[in-house]
Amino acid sequence: GNSFMKNMVRIMAGTLVDVGRGWLSADDVPAMLQKDADRSQAGQTAPGHGLTLVEIELARFDGPGDAFDRPKVGEPPRRL
Description:
22% of the residues lie in helices and 5% in strands. The protein has helices spanning 8-21, 29-32, and strands at 57-58, 78-79. The longest helix is centred in the first third of the chain and has 14 residues, at 8-21.
């Protein structure tokens, strides 16, 4: 999909913690990020305290609709 569900970042953080603990395999994470993934296969939702957004990098795109499929070739990501 092209949108974030509620608590997605916290779910991803909790899943990566579980990978670090050896409870989940890093090889399983890409399948968990797919649109039709089973949420019960991901890790626990991490608590919100302690999570800090430090930086966002976005690739440049040709136009509307391209953001999810085709990054513009030859341009580095831009910083916000």
